[in-house]
């Protein structure tokens, strides 16, 4: 599988255009590695993960077309991950090749699917809505998709999802937004899925070097704790690649500094346009 990162920032973007704090002032003057749009990714040009407000900007920045996308996985309805008017770009009014456009299956929690189907933007957008249950395995073309619950509060009736994407004997785990996975949770992952190894782990690193005790995102410390718990149950091995992803501008320094800090722990840092093969 080939994965490309379309965006790698948290909610406010990095730099946040309204912030002149030290990280944002540095980033706006720096090169592209320090400019992060809101998080999304695409696998094999076919599976898009998340549909936030920067999808158009990301595709223009990276020179990408989404016309071959056949599956959209949505983690949750926070505005940096789901901007429902995006669906209108698929409607006949806005799409010159509407007749040639493939149907796109949309997987998300039932609550998110309801939000989409209630919106006029999803009408006649050639989408197939598929409410998805955590721990079920869904077959899609040559892939298997397994949603699992995130440790991330969205709203009263909505719990975020993270996704395992499997093709042949390779597995990607896309895990933002989420806080730490404790020992009980990683055992639940093993018990409720048939997974035995993650080849590429993409994990929430939003809070970076803050001392925040907010539990819905990872700090550097809780990131490392989660990695260690995943190793204990055998889901990560020596050959697994680990990527820190989804950065807030508050407590994450510029890309080069951040890369050094994670590199010491054998972890890579995502940036907009990063492409990896597993
Ligand atoms: Zn987010
Ligand atoms: Zn969120």
Write the layout of secondary structure elements.
Layout: E1 2-7, H1 22-29, E2 40-43, E3 47-49, H2 55-62, E4 71-73, E5 104-108, H3 110-117, E6 127-131, E7 138-140, E8 143-155, E9 158-167, E10 170-175, H4 183-192, E11 200-204, H5 220-232, E12 241-245, H6 255-263, E13 268-269, E14 275-277
Parallel strand pairs: 3-4, 4-5, 5-6, 10-11, 11-12, 12-13
Antiparallel strand pairs: 1-2, 1-14, 2-3, 7-8, 8-9, 9-10
This protein binds zinc ion (ZN) (2 copies).
Task: Describe this structure as you would to a colleague.
By secondary structure, the chain is of the alpha/beta class. It has one domain: Metallo-beta-lactamase, Chain A. The chain has six helices and 14 strands. A hairpin with a 2-residue loop joins strand 7 and strand 8. The mean pLDDT is 97. The protein binds zinc ion (2 copies). The site of one zinc ion has 4 residues, from loops.
Task: Give a quick set of tags describing it.
binds zinc ion; globular; seven-stranded mixed sheet; Metallo-beta-lactamase, Chain A; single chain; 278 residues; 6 helices; alpha/beta
The percentage of residues in β strands lies in 25-35%
List low-confidence stretches: none
Mass-distribution shape: globular
- List the bound ligands: zinc ion
């Amino acid at each position: 599988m080939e994965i490309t990162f379309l965006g790698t920032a948290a909610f406010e973007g990095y730099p946040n255009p309204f912030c002149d704090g030290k990280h944002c002032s540095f980033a706006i003057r720096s090169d592209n590695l320090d400019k992060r749009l809101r998080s999304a990714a695409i696998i094999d040009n076919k599976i898009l993960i998340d549909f936030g407000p920067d999808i158009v900007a990301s595709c223009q920045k990276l020179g990408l077309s989404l016309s071959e996308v056949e599956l959209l996985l949505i983690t949750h309805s926070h505005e940096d991950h789901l901007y429902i008017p995006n669906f209108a770009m698929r409607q006949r009014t806005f799409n010159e090749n509407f007749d040639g456009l493939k149907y796109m299956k949309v997987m998300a929690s039932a609550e998110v699917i309801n939000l989409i189907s209630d919106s006029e933007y999803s009408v006649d957008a050639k989408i197939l809505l598929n409410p998805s249950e955590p721990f079920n395995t869904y077959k899609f073309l040559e892939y298997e998709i397994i949603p699992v619950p995130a440790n991330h509060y969205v709203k009263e009736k909505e719990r975020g999802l993270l996704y395992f994407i499997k093709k042949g004997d390779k597995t990607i785990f896309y895990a933002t937004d989420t806080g730490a996975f404790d020992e009980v949770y990683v055992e639940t992952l093993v018990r409720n899925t048939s997974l035995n190894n993650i080849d590429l782990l993409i994990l929430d690193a939003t809070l970076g070097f803050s001392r925040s005790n907010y539990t819905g995102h990872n700090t550097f410390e809780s990131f490392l704790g989660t990695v260690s718990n995943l190793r204990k149950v055998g889901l990560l091995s020596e050959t697994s690649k680990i990527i820190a992803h989804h950065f807030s501008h508050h407590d994450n320094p510029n890309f080069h500094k951040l890369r050094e800090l994670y590199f010491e722990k054998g972890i890579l840092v995502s940036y907009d346009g990063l492409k990896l093969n597993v």
